[in-house]
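Task: encode each sequence below as structure tokens.

Item 1
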Amino acid sequence: MLESGNTSTQQTFNKLIVAQVELNFFNRTVFFQRELIITTGLEFNLLALLMANAGALVTRGCIAEEIFQRELIACDKSINSHIANLRKKLSVISASPVIKTVKGQGYIFLTS
């Protein structure tokens, strides 16, 4: 198991846990504060990318390439939509934000 500093990040072969969000890669489930969050496949992949880079900026261009396999211009609105959907699903459990927007650049998965 890997732990990175004070960011409360743990990763094993099948799981990634950052703060109170747990991704299980084996069955593709997401738990937030021990509550199951139902995500689409794309939302799961997007959350995994953000969590794998927790505390660091993930650019919109990186999301476009890694998640959509396209250039940013072709999926600009899709990124906004999927981030909004993830935020909505997570906010049902807690009003504390988990994903921070860096305007015009990308997103940061918050570690606390």
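Item 2
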Amino acid sequence: MKRRAIRFLITVSCGGALLLLVLAPGTTFSQSPPTKSPQVFQELFDYSLKEKKGLTFFVQGQTIPGVVTKMFGDDAVEVRNQTSNRIIIRLDRIDAVAAN
């Protein structure tokens, strides 16, 4: 089996300027997303828990609005909203959190 070296040549026109990008053979791109620390959202969770204010959780393509009612360490958070009294969201599945 022969291995061929493939080079990618990408040109992008941006406002009259030309950008040229050459990728050498063996260049790899990570296909896994960067890991997020559960502490990243901690300030918003505390705010929602103390002030009873709603947050919007973005979890793997789904949007879940709710108020934080309980936290389970660095593993999960319990949320309630108008349609559900108890929703458990794993922190490692959260993509983003927005305060209302």
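Check on item 2: The chain has a mean pLDDT of 78. The helical segments are 42-51.
End of task.
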